[in-house]
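Hi V.,

You were right to ask for the full record rather than a summary. Here it is.
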Amino acid sequence: MDEDLKILSAEEVKKTLIDYPGWEYRDDKITKEFQFESFGEAVEFIKKLAPFCDKIDHHPDVHIYYKKVVFDLQRFSVGGKVTQRDFRVASEIERMFSSE
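Predicted structure:
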């Protein structure tokens, strides 16, 4: 198994979240809400993120509420738990959002 797919304990997740402001851990996933100026910008952001997710084979649950997008990250292939790969996706989301 890839090292970044090792299931993280709740303590490991909470410790790592210190470096991810606004992200929360609940229901065996990490989650954060992002606000956009329009529905179109929200959809465009997800379209830009998709190639990265395909490349590393990790796809977040994405909930669009008009101009708000909520990302839920967990790895289903390891029983719906949080892994380091979830934090790779969270890092990319943060990187892309901060450059918008």
